[in-house]
Amino acid sequence: MKSWPFKVIGNLNDKPMIVVNYKDEEKHFAAEEISSMVLAKMAEIAEVYLGSTVKDVVITVPAYFNDSQRQSTQDAGVIAGLNVMRIINEPSAAAIAYGLDMKPFNHGCKHVFIFDLGGGTLDVSILTFEKGAINVKAIAGDTHLGGQDFDNTMVNHFVNEFSRKYKIDISGDPRALRRLKSACEKAKRILSSNITTTIQIESLNQGIDFYSSISRAKFEELNKNHFDKCMEIVEKCIIDSGMDKSSIHDVVLVGGSTRIVKVQQMVSDFFGGKLLCKSINVDEAVAYGAAVHASILSGECSEKDLQLSEVIPLSLGLETHGGIMNTIIPRNTKIPAKMEHVFTTHLHNQMNILIHVYEGERKITRENNLLGKFVLEIPPAPAGVPQIKISFQIDDDGILDVCSTEKSLGVNKKVKIISDKGRLSKEDIERKIKEAEKYKDEDKRYMKKVEARVVLETYAYNMRNAINDKDISLMLSSKEKEKINNALDLVFTWLDVNVIAEQEQFEYYTSILSSVFDAVIVKKINDERHGVQEGIMVGNAVKNKKNHWKQTLLKYSFIIVHAAATTNITGLASQLIVDFVKKD
Q: Is the pTM of this model over 0.85?
């Protein structure tokens, strides 16, 4: 969190909130809101490409996301105005992409290891491909290990180097750290193909230009702990699957950070020097697999025989006497799943029971993640008499639903977990949906302003280039060029002063330019037309007049096209030409 380029605070319920300055006002956003903005933007991009509305989506998450994180992801989709059809693990989505790439795979059983190392998380999975079905055998991962961690070790290295060289500590300078991190990320990518590279940042701090170099060997030394952690997770997944690593047929790399040479080398060595599968795009595989899965769920895909079966990443259970974890559903259980557990009371005449639901692998509950708690009221009875059944049900998205029933005394009550710590309430979600719509409308208005400014700037620059063009310049008199230049100077001066303005203002100045330009060009066209009409009287007059007029139109249409290129601006001169062509 210390390396994040933004500030995080806790609200009244100790929920993390991201601090943002918006329109000179400090605003606090929950992680779900930020995610919803990203999702809404992605849907908008998809809509532009597809030319239709996007509402139904499949969202991928790191395989090791816990129940709360999956719930929050679903909330983010709702706030964005989307219908979340399914939440699937990223390695599973990559497996779908791999499965389509390696088709056919309906002969025999194939064991595939997916190694997904992205910017912030590591996910590994073992899957079996058999007769069109993809079954997840085991998953492991770390939601706090990825490319950003490699970047941060480099940043710390160069912060220390800067301190040694110049006796200045830049660790408290957010701007310097952002620039240094950007340079380190670039250096990391270069080191995937080169054995050494340089860091060059002008005026990093107090006007000091920072220059340094780093080798691939040094990069690997700095990140040794991270690389070792990656392999520990790989080994854990193999152990959990109950398989021997020699039975893995293919090892598939996914995620931008798998381009790191050391990562490829260590993964290959772990599997006995096996040639790694790089046939699928490491950056796009997850998105591609998710899109295919969405089309299967919507019934629009020809790959309907391609079935995906997921597992849960962490064990789920209850806290029993003494703070001990009683596992109800073990990790790597196939989902959807439903399991039950019956227990009784330890005290006489107990009237209520506080039930705590946890996820994790530790035997002591305080070391695991508390998902929620609820109170079950029961009639007084001797200890050991009540028979309380707890039912755990996990849906296809990997989200947990817990119910409790007391049967022995004829009481049949069902209670669901009230809420997850830090999760948005139903009222919060509804309020944030309305806020998201408000921001969406503001974004649309802002985009229209930006588009109007771009049109004005483009038209002005095109017009200036047009009248400065050697061929076009010969067609215009000095007075005509002066008239256009005066209008251009007016517009450029106004643009310099008004970086931000209303859409109507940009359109107003565009109309000024268009009218000045039209006045000059229309006059030129009309002058030429009158000259032709007065100068040609007999013989081939009609034919010659028409040919001359065509040449005139071609000449001035060249100027119009040159000036209005990419702006879709049409004026009187353009209309004059269009009318003539229609008549002709």
A: no
Give the start-to-end residue ranges of the domains of the chain.
Answer: 147-225, 316-422, 430-583
Residue linked to tokens 């038209």 = 459
CATH architecture of 316-422: Sandwich (2.60)
CA dihedral 557, 560, 565, 569 (to 10 degrees): -120
Rounded to whole angstroms, the Cα distance separating 355 from 89 reads 29
- Residues 6+ positions from 414 with CB-CB distance below 8 Å: 403, 404, 405
Looking at residue 189, its amino acid is R
Q: CA 66, CA 15: separation in Å to the nearest integer?
A: 17
One digit per residue, the tens of pLDDT, for the chain of length 584 reads 666 767 888 877 778 888 888 777 888 888 898 999 999 999 989 998 999 999 999 999 988 888 888 888 999 999 999 999 999 999 889 888 887 666 555 556 889 999 999 998 999 999 988 877 888 899 999 988 999 999 999 999 999 999 999 999 998 888 899 999 999 999 999 999 999 999 999 999 998 999 999 999 999 999 999 999 999 999 999 999 999 999 999 999 999 999 999 999 999 999 999 999 877 888 889 998 898 888 888 877 655 556 777 888 888 998 887 788 889 999 888 888 899 888 887 778 888 888 888 888 888 888 888 888 878 788 888 877 888 888 888 888 877 888 887 776 555 555 445 444 455 666 666 666 666 677 777 777 877 888 888 888 888 888 888 777 776 677 778 888 888 888 889 888 888 888 778 888 888 888 888 888 777 776 766 666 555 444 444 444 444 545 554 555 555 554 554 455 445 554 544 454 445 444 44
Contact in structure between 73 and 88 (CB atoms under 8 Å): no
Q: Which two tokens stand for residue 423?
A: 């999760």
Q: Class assignment of domain 430-583?
A: mainly alpha
In CATH, which superfamily holds the domain spanning 147-225? Answer: ATPase, substrate binding domain, subdomain 4 (3.90.640.10)
